[in-house]
Design brief:
- The complex is a heterodimer of chains A (413) and B (442).
- Chain A has 413 residues and is α/β, with parallel strands linked by helices.
- Chain A is built from nine helices and 19 strands.
- Chain A is 23% helix and 26% strand.
- In chain A, the strands form five sheets. In chain A, strands 8-9-11-10-12-13-16-17 form an eight-stranded mixed beta sheet, sandwiched between helices.
- Chain B is α/β, with parallel strands linked by helices.
- In chain B, the strands form six sheets. An eight-stranded mixed beta sheet of chain B has the order 11-12-14-13-15-16-19-20, with helices on both faces.
- Classes of the chains: A alpha/beta (413), B alpha/beta (442).
- Chains A and B meet through β6, β7, β12 and α9 of A and β3, β9 and β10 of B.
Chain lengths: 413, 442
């Protein structure tokens, strides 16, 4: 972004303002000095202060935070992927830090950020008792497929699946913690729920059944690894696991994962700000093989993404244990670990606001609100998101689109 | 040709082999076609690529767009994938189709439009469907040969730009304002005798930070009738300029005028008034005089028959208006005097303009300014092979199109050879924006 002005050596503040779907306002701002031609180029010039400093091309987006006076514990998420995230970027004279609405505005532009490319089709899925949304890329296909799992809190979170479909992968966002089925029966879904979801993808006329991946975050990692290793009903081309663990009771229904967590709930602790740290629930990593997925039996490539400051799940410790298991079993060539110093738990697609802690509801009766600490330091976490997303896309493309040397097709003739 | 077998999933895969090459199989997903960025302004470049294709194989990339009237436009280009199974329109040459050679934007400007198709609703994008087809085929074979597709949106209006209908003081037009408080430098935007309200160039100017006002002066229901005549005169154009200048979000000391075709005459005529002081003038392929009189002070106008004697026809009955604006054929008293010009003037010439005598009029203007010792105000851009309708880039050009249905059906010649005209649009637009920046922002 460039900004031209008449005056020389002008000190300026560039401000970003976004109103999210539930009405909260988020902002970021940075102080710059225009050069001799009256130009500021955010991609190249250093911020001298504000919400961030230094050269940060995407700083105005990655550093968005709730405006002063907002409720505490907010977490930014886009639930309606069919509309863009609108951000107003404005320029003010001088180095301002507050009261932007009362300042004299010099110029502004509006930018739109999308999760869904034009032509991507959004298809709600309810067959087989599923609560899911399938996103299909433009074109005839067949496309590789992907099952997208989020973590605690449930709901149908669509944005990552929409984004993946915008990159050519037919992706299904699956609600497995609060689906219709669970609302009606009060019971958590089991393995067959995921096998049904897999089958829906596999049998879709525009999806290539032999190229299906699974991506899980947080609690979703446990499910992904369980399915990848043990389920006879599905054969994954690859898996991506972000900020999670292989620790879970592997005998019995999936619901036992919840029982296991509840049993260890006493290990929960709070920091000096009363922010809740849940990571200890699964520590120490058990040695009992019935309490963790046997990673030595994994047969597909696995990308593990880990934030070293994850305060919610023991992702680093779990990754190390998984690596050891796979080295012992001789399948560690399947494993790639991306480990990010000072990144927290919520490693998501890049250029969206960072949340170090936010309000979550416990599943007690009645539910209470606590401030959960996710961890991570802003700059390191934002960089981690950028790097991890790029590498995730490369990993998925290689395993879902590539995998066959093109030269081979000629020699068969 | 080996037929294609559908496959049961628990059997080993069978390949579909066409022409000795394995194109698709049940073991592999379809190739991938990508466009970046998928949402952009009309004058932004787009990068189109195909991936995961067999190496050294013929493919066709085709683009399809639907105009506001529902007409379908198409362009296509033939490529050979390279060794790593990719095709990249920024790097690879087209060996056949709507254009030849390496032209990153060729699928856009090479679109063949239905006659008379232009974007009327600037608040919605053009939705472009791009497809990757196997072999060197024409788009009509898309259903049977499509491998992959991607959709892109091309916009005339950036987010935040405001479109405002103006019906004030008898002036009929549309104002486009950039987002933000302003005040903004501004442009008055004048088109040709095709009439109506042509908004897209103004929408783009606003998307680039300039307030811009598209003005109607003929062929619009809100103007005094009849619609086939100009029923407004000098006071009308002055009102329009002043209305723009007086707008609270316009910086009154930085207002320019741009005119295409007959709009050039209007631009020069307006600038000639002593109380109208534009900061710059941009003239594209238009005359410095006219046999058509504007309405006089009492709103009386003359008929427009005089010009028809200069119309020329080719053997298909296509009409060229070129000779109408030859300086020798223009009424002498109408030729605009430029001695009092105080602002820079840029004149853009399409050397293959078959609708106006642009070269001759550019010469006339240049001579007039030289005689007044004002050559330093004059800049000429001259483009070989470019036609009459030099417009924002990466949009299709018609060499001829339907001009009128009544009193007779007439197709008129604009001129312009595809690739050269596209290059002219790209270069001139860049220079127009630079010229505006120099004169309206400093």
């Amino acid at each position: 972004m460039d900004m031209k002005q008449h005056c020389v050596k002008l000190s300026l503040t560039i401000h970003a303002l976004h109103q999210c779907e539930d009405g909260h306002s988020w902002e970021a701002f940075a102080h710059y000095n225009a050069d001799a031609t009256g130009t500021v180029n955010v991609s190249q010039d250093p911020s001298l202060g504000g919400t961030y400093s230094g050269v940060e091309p995407m700083g105005l987006l990655s550093n968005l935070r709730p405006v002063p006076g907002s409720k505490t514990g907010l977490r930014w998420r886009k639930m309606n992927v069919q509309t863009p995230m609108g951000v107003t970027i404005s320029v003010y004279q001088g180095h301002q830090t507050e009261g932007f609405l009362d300042q004299v505005l010099l110029a502004s532009v509006v930018v739109e950020r999308w999760y869904m490319a034009p032509g991507v089709r959004r298809v709600p899925i309810t067959e087989g008792g599923l609560t899911a949304t399938l996103f299909l890329p433009s074109g005839p296909g067949p496309f590789p497929g992907l099952l997208d799992l989020w973590g605690w809190g449930g709901k149908l979170v669509e944005y990552r699946a929409a984004l993946l479909a915008s990159h050519g992968i037919a992706s299904m966002a699956l609600d497995y913690l609060t689906p219709q089925m669970t609302k009606e029966t009060g019971r958590m879904v089991d393995i067959d729920y995921f096998e049904t979801a897999y089958r829906v993808l596999e049998q879709h006329p525009q999806i290539l059944g032999s190229r299906i991946a699974m991506l899980g975050l947080s609690f979703g990692v446990g499910v992904t690894l369980r399915m990848a290793v043990y389920s006879k009903g599905l054969k994954l081309s690859c898996a991506v696991c972000i900020s999670g663990s292989h620790v879970q009771p592997i005998d019995g229904p999936l619901e036992q994962m919840l029982t296991y967590l509840n049993k260890n709930a006493y290990k929960m602790r709070s920091d000096e700000n009363n922010q809740v740290i849940w990571r200890d629930l699964m520590l120490p990593i058990p040695t009992d093989p019935s309490l963790k997925v046997d990673m030595g039996r994994l047969q597909c490539p696995l990308l593990l993404v880990v934030g070293e400051d994850d305060q919610n799940w023991p992702s680093s410790e779990s990754a190390m244990d998984m690596k050891e298991m796979m080295e012992r079993a001789g399948n560690s060539h399947l494993l790639t670990v991306l480990s990010y110093k000072n990144a927290g738990h919520l490693i998501e697609p890049p250029f969206t606001p960072f949340t170090r802690a936010s309000t979550t509801k416990t599943d007690t009766n009645p539910p209470t609100k606590v401030m959960t600490l996710w961890g991570g330091e802003l700059v390191a976490h934002s960089r981690a998101q950028e790097d991890a997303w790029r590498k995730t896309l490369v990993f998925l493309r290689e395993n879902l689109y590539g995998g066959m040397k093109h030269g081979a097709s000629f020699s068969n003739l | 040709m080996i037929p294609c077998y559908t496959v049961q999933r628990n059997l080993a895969c069978i390949q579909r082999i066409v022409g000795g090459v394995r194109w698709t199989s049940s073991c592999r997903p379809a190739p991938l076609l990508t466009a970046s960025p998928v949402r952009a302004l009309i004058d932004d470049k787009i990068s189109i690529r195909g991936h995961f294709l067999p190496p050294r194989c013929p493919v066709t990339v085709c683009a399809q767009m639907q105009s506001d009237d529902g007409d379908l436009w198409e362009a296509f280009a033939h490529f050979n994938t390279n060794l790593d199974g990719t095709v990249n329109l920024t790097r690879d040459p087209s060996v056949g189709g709507s254009y030849l050679g390496c032209e990153p934007m060729g699928l856009l400007w090479g679109l063949q439009p239905a006659p008379g198709a232009e974007k009327k609703k600037v608040e919605t994008p053009y939705v472009m469907l791009m497809s990757l087809l196997k072999g060197h085929v024409s788009p009509s074979e898309r259903p049977s040969t499509e491998l992959a597709a991607v959709t892109a949106e091309r916009w005339y209006m950036a987010p935040g730009v405001r479109r405002i209908d103006i019906r004030q003081n008898g002036v009929v037009g549309t104002l486009f304002l950039p987002p933000g408080p302003g005040p903004f430098p501004a442009m008055l935007d004048l088109w040709g005798m095709g009439g109506g309200l042509v908004e897209y160039r103004s929408a783009l100017f606003a998307s680039r930070g300039y307030a811009s006002f598209s003005l109607a002066y003929i062929g619009h229901k809100d103007l005094p009738g009849p619609q086939h005549r100009i029923n407004v005169g000098d006071p009308y154009f002055k009102s329009a300029f002043q209305l723009l200048q007086d707008h609270p979000q316009v910086y009154r000391d930085r207002v320019g005028i741009i005119g295409l075709s007959f709009g050039v005459y209007l631009t020069l005529r307006l600038a000639n008034h002593s109380d109208i002081k534009p900061s710059c003038l941009i003239c594209i392929n238009g005359p410095a005089g006219s046999n058509i009189k504007l309405a006089d002070a009492d709103g009386r106008t003359e008929q427009m028959e005089n010009d028809q004697k200069y119309w020329t026809y080719d053997d298909q009955g296509t009409v060229s208006f070129r000779a109408v604006s030859l300086p020798a054929n223009l009424s002498p008293e109408s030729k605009v005097e430029l001695d009092h010009l105080t602002c820079p003037l840029m004149y853009i010439v399409g050397e293959d303009d078959l609708s106006a005598s642009s070269i001759e009029n550019a010469n006339l203007i240049e001579e007039t300014l030289s005689a007044a010792v004002k050559s330093q105000l004059f800049t000429r851009l001259s483009y070989p092979g470019a036609g009459h309708l030099i417009e924002p880039p990466y949009t299709p050009n018609s060499r001829a199109s339907l001009w009128s249905v009544k009193p007779q059906k007439l197709v008129t010649l604009w001129g312009g050879h595809l690739a050269l005209h596209a290059a002219a649009q790209e270069d001139s637009w860049k220079k127009i924006l630079e010229f505006m920046e120099t004169n309206l922002r400093h």
